[in-house]
Design brief:
The protein is an alpha+beta fold. The protein folds into 3 domains: 166 residues, no CATH class; 76 residues, no CATH class; 120 residues, no CATH class. It is built from 8 helices and 17 strands. Helix 4 packs antiparallel against helix 7 and helix 5 crosses helix 6.
């Protein structure tokens, strides 16, 4: 409670100032003690948050080494990207292949006869379209039996999985323009031919003009604008036929994207281990480890000559436990590795006397070339570095883990200290009121004494 400054009427003293100083002197030790505890709790809370964030980043970098395919990363290169490009993925293996693209896959395309415009009535009834054995039907009546209506009905059909419909405006050959319906298969290849049958409404005929059923009735009232084609390539002289120009099942783990056909032009596709990608992931792990260790060193530092510079977690058992477990996880040999390449040190990753981890690029490359599977085992086998680090970090980072529990405890402590501060303030408010009453009573008494003294002095003077 604020104390107004006022001079005592009887004593002339600054009662408000005196009470303020007394209350402040009484409360300062308690507030200082609470403040120190709050600062310590907040500092520890901030330090734990910093440590948890660094551990999370480290686990992310470690997890990349434990992912499926992290050490089977390959790259594919085409010597003629104008004809074909190649991309290596999971399961690719090193090798060299000769390629020749003889034919690109194409989609089936049909074109109708000419109509006067979008609003020209085509006919009413039911139109059934089929692609690769999948049929769907559209019903056409007075609300949608125009050329535009037929196009929209086909495209909006909920079970249409194979046909795109469009309208083109072209010359009619005699100086005018006509509109034509174009049906295009959504997928390339001979297995995705379009067929169209119709049941006409005799009152509004015309749908039969859109029939294309060469394998059934034999009627082909639509013009085949583009015949469907399968892609044909030669791989090491062996023919492979596919329905798509993106082929991922001829060379294991490699996707071939065909750009154009050029019979007689032979070129190479080379698949090789992508050392750069593997080193990037591994280098990320090394950097994350060094970053984590640097932060833990900072949080746990102790300077006997300047205690105030000590880290926020100096002497903390959690910090020491994490440091010990991580150092053991990266330093121990891997029991699930079946060769001499059974530790980080054996594959070119070492830790110096100061605790800094480094990657020797040449040694690491040699290990990759000598035994790729063994290098992978060092990280991602059952007892691999990445696998056991992940297990150890789970107990700290997962929901309900060490950090969650300590954070809850600290927040509860801070909340309790805030309540303690309120309690102290309430006590000081009561003390203030008590002191003010006492000083005011004193001031009144002093005033009375002064008044009595003045009266007696006057009487004596009169004698």
């Amino acid at each position: 409670m604020a104390i107004a400054s006022a001079l005592g009427i009887g004593s002339g003293m600054d009662i408000g100032g005196i009470v303020r100083q007394l209350v402040d002197a009484d409360g300062r030790p308690a507030f200082n003690a609470i403040g120190r505890k709050e600062d310590a709790a907040n500092e520890r809370l901030s330090a734990l948050g910093r440590l948890k964030s660094s551990l999370s980043d480290f686990r992310t970098a470690t997890g990349k080494l434990n992912e499926l395919g992290a050490f089977s990363t390959h790259q594919a290169a085409s010597s003629n990207e104008g004809i074909l490009t190649a991309t290596a993925g999971l399961g690719a293996a090193a090798g060299s292949y000769s390629l020749e693209v003889q034919q690109l896959a194409e989609a089936h395309k049909l074109t109708s006869g000419g109509y006067s415009g979008y609003s020209d009535v085509v006919g009413s009834g039911t139109l059934t379209l089929s692609v690769a054995g999948n049929d769907f039907s559209v019903i056409l009546d007075g609300t949608n039996n125009t050329l535009e209506g037929v196009r929209d009905a086909i495209n909006k059909a909920s079970d249409n999985s194979g046909v795109n419909a469009s309208i083109i405006n072209v010359d009619d050959g005699v100086g005018g323009t006509v509109s034509k319906l174009v049906l295009t298969s959504k997928s390339t290849g001979t297995a995705n031919d379009i067929s169209v049958t119709a049941i006409e409404d005799s009152a509004v005929p015309g749908l039969s003009n859109l029939v294309y059923d060469p394998a059934g009735s034999g009627t082909t009232n639509l013009t085949e604008q583009n015949a469907s084609l399968d892609a044909k390539i030669l791989v090491d002289g062996q023919l492979a036929t596919r329905s798509s120009n993106s082929i991922n099942d001829v060379i294991q783990g490699v996707t071939l994207d065909l750009k154009k056909a050029e019979t007689g032009t032979v070129f190479n596709v080379d698949v090789s281990l992508d050392e750069a990608a593997i080193k990037t992931v591994t280098g990320g792990f090394v950097s994350a480890y060094n970053g984590l260790m640097s932060i833990m060193k900072d949080l746990g530092r102790y300077d006997p000559e300047n205690v105030e510079k000590a880290g926020a977690l100096v002497g903390d058992s959690t910090l020491r436990s994490i440091q010990a477990q991580i150092r053991q996880a990266v330093g121990d040999s891997v029991s699930s590795a079946t060769t001499d390449y059974n530790s980080l040190a054996m594959i070119g990753i070492s830790i110096d006397r100061t605790g800094v981890m480094s990657l020797n690029s040449a040694e690491f490359s040699d290990a990759l070339k000598a035994n790729l599977n063994a290098v992978s085992d060092v990280f991602s086998s059952s007892d691999g570095v990445a696998a056991r680090l992940d297990t150890r970090l789970d107990q700290y980072l997962n929901s309900g883990g060490t950090f969650d529990e300590q954070t809850k405890s600290l927040n509860k402590q801070i909340s309790g200290l805030s309540a303690d501060r309120d309690t102290v303030q309430l006590r000081l408010d009561n003390l203030e009121r008590t002191l003010m009453k006492q000083f005011i009573a004193m001031d009144v008494a002093v005033g009375q004494f002064q008044s009595t003294g003045a009266y007696l002095a006057q009487q004596l003077a009169n004698l």
